[in-house]
Write a structure and sequence with these properties.
Blueprint: H1 8-15, E1 25-30, E2 35-39, E3 45-47, H2 48-55, H3 60-79, E4 82-83, E5 92-95, E6 101-103, E7 110-111
Antiparallel strand pairs: 1-2, 3-5, 4-7, 5-6
Length: 125
């Protein structure tokens, strides 16, 4: 098998696959200039941004339930040596049947380190 360089996103996502609240990576295909990820998609889900827009103000108990899941997922990623660096409602899927969350999109992520992060991968205001 020919070895090749892979995106950091793929390495990070692979490293956190033991965490049930991170999107499952089923397979990866590559051609000369692209990688294609085959990811889990829960049957009945939407991102947290759309969920909040449609529902309006969340009841405190539901907001606490979501916040607890997000914090636990972030801490679990850190224990695996991965920092997401782009936690926002568009990067969190809500399973509409169970109200369990899945963290997605590790494209801005990095390996956890004790020094300052000096790169920026977003939009400046």
């Amino acid at each position: 098998m020919k070895s090749c360089r892979v995106p950091l996103e793929l390495k990070l996502l692979s490293q956190v696959q033991s965490i049930s609240s991170v999107i499952r990576l089923y397979d990866v295909y590559a051609n000369d200039n692209s990688f294609f990820y085959i990811l889990e998609k829960p049957d009945c889900c939407k991102d947290l941004f759309d969920f909040i827009n449609e529902k309006g103000i969340l009841e405190e108990q539901l907001a606490q339930h979501f916040f607890r899941q997000i914090v636990e997922t972030v801490l679990a990623c850190h224990r695996e040596g991965v920092v997401h660096l782009d936690i926002k409602d568009e990067n969190i899927l809500v399973d509409l049947k169970t109200l369990n969350l899945k963290l997605i999109d590790f494209g801005s992520g990095a390996y956890l380190k004790d020094e300052l992060y000096t790169t920026f991968a977003g939009e400046k205001l």
